[in-house]
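ARCHIVE CARD
Drawer: 12
Card no.: 0347
Subject: one protein chain, sequence and derived structure
Cross-reference: see card 0346
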Amino acid sequence: MKNLLLILSLLAQFALSAQDVNFFTGTWEEANAKAKAENKMIMVDAYTYWCGPCKVMDKTYFHNNQEVADVINKYFVPYKIECEHDFGIVFSRKFKINGYPSLLYFNSEGQLVRRQMGYDNNQKTYIEGLYKIINMDQHDTYGYDATKLDMPWPDFYANDFRNAADSTWKRNKNVDPNAWLDQQPDLFAEMSWAVMARFSLNDKYNTYFLEHYDEYNKKYKLEADDKLTSVLYANVQKAAEQKNVDLMNVTVEQYKKFIPNDDIGLHYLLSYYYELSNDWQAYANHFEKRLNNPANNVNINEINNTAWLIYESTDDKALIEQVLLWFKPFLATMSGYNELDTYAALLTKVNRYKDAEPWAIKAIEAGKSASLDVKATEALLETIKKNL
């Protein structure tokens, strides 16, 4: 009987482990050797101990998930790297890790072919993405030797990566990467690019990057895409601060040139400009263009987030009345705490207390049902009742 129980226990453990991603626990060099011997790719989960989304991804995708485990275990040597201690710092410097979780994919020769940042909670698209990586050209690698990790990085670059074991570590906010770049003979070399990708640059180097974007993109792929977004948004911020409409128009044209047919991205770029300019009427009108196009299929969550930002940012009653109309098609079915609370707050802001009261009550009920903190809405309801 004891033997039978032992066998059943072992079988149960085996069944559970079969649903897990089998992360390799040897050294990085051993992981590369294993990938080459088995003709597999390497998938690196780059994480930190404090990263919440990293933990969620690990729990939902990498444990007790047969569908994900089957794909990763078959085609990859999966490997975890904690990025703020020891080897993880070396790895982060080499591959410019600046957000978590980051997933990096290497071919069987140890060369980087793809990188992703963030946790995609849509399992279908996540797995589809894995197959795209599996089927991509494995020779289309990033333009540097990914197997050479130790590089003679400039001190300001090396020290910009957090060492969690060093209690005295602080990021140097007074670094001038432009002075270092002025001394570099080749702005397309790996170390030059690492500095350009990591730090904010002056107009000279931002312009140089934009003028040579196609070359950087060919060599550094998604890293160049990330830098492009950073430069364009920096220009938006500058245009807003200087009230420079011409610069904003140039930035919009650059976005259209480098990222064509990305209507949603362009929408957010312009929204950011109106937000920084504190032009909430323009911000609302711009959103309405998106809202009024049925092809965009704007949902109540997007409306709520946009409306709440306007609510917090302006007391313009005419504008608030305009925003209230966005909710009209959803009123009959609206049941989530956030949108109910926002709608009640908007009504209160334009002194429509009688209309606001039932929505505030509904919001409180919905919030309590979802075990949410509804103290702010209860305070709103008290304000409403005092003004009835």
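Annotation on reverse: The chain has 20 helices and four strands. The chain has three domains: 19-158, 176-277, 292-388.
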